[in-house]
Recover the amino acids of this structure.
């Protein structure tokens, strides 16, 4: 499923919808170039979960945990790591809920992961400057691909939102 994201608000809205529908243990793997909107999407997810604390990029901290919402949010950013450094982080403890309360795991720069969970939602954010432009701005879009996870409810909510905003 591809969704057109004309502005920052649209990225936030998509995140909010996800944050309202996701269930414990859901993993969102975010891919996309520098500045594509990955952190913005996670800020929306946080809002949808009911987190009021500002969600900031974990580029330097690697992981930020937010526990005030409907479910805990574990926000990771692998940008500064080499793929061979990733296994030592023991990321699976987050999605398996081992020694951490099961929640939502959102990982920026998931391209860096040498292995992935058994089930996850891949969200790839892209922008193009040539050809596809909207009001002189690059065309931004999100492509959502579920891997081994049922997202009928999420897709229905996204479609509902899109229709309501038409
Ligand atoms: N759909 C959109 N249209 C226009 N601007 C957007 C959109 N989504 C996000 N932005 C803007 O793009 C900028 C970068 O966003 P963001 O920090 O979320 O990107 P990122 O993918 O997390 O970057 P990084 O690779 O550095 O982690 C922000 O100023 C944000 O407001
Ligand atoms: Mg970011």
């Amino acid at each position: 499923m591809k969704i057109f994201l004309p502005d920052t608000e649209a990225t936030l809205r998509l995140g909010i919808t996800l944050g309202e529908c996701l269930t414990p243990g859901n993993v969102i793997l975010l891919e996309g170039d520098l500045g594509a909107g990955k952190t913005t999407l996670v800020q929306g997810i946080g809002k949808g979960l009911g987190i009021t604390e500002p969600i900031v990029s974990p580029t330097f901290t690697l992981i930020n945990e937010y526990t005030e919402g409907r479910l805990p949010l574990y926000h990771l950013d692998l940008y500064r790591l080499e793929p061979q450094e990733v296994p030592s982080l023991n990321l699976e403890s987050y999605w398996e809920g081992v020694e951490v309360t099961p929640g939502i795991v959102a990982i920026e720069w998931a391209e860096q992961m040498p292995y992935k969970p058994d089930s996850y939602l891949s969200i790839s954010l892209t922008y193009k400057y040539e050809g596809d432009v909207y009001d002189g701005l690059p065309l931004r879009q999100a492509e959502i691909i579920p891997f081994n996870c049922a997202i009928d409810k999420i897709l229905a909510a996204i479609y509902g939102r899109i229709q309501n905003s038409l």
In short: The chain has four helices and seven strands. The longest strand covers residues 120-134. Residues 78 and 109 are 5 Å apart (CA to CA).
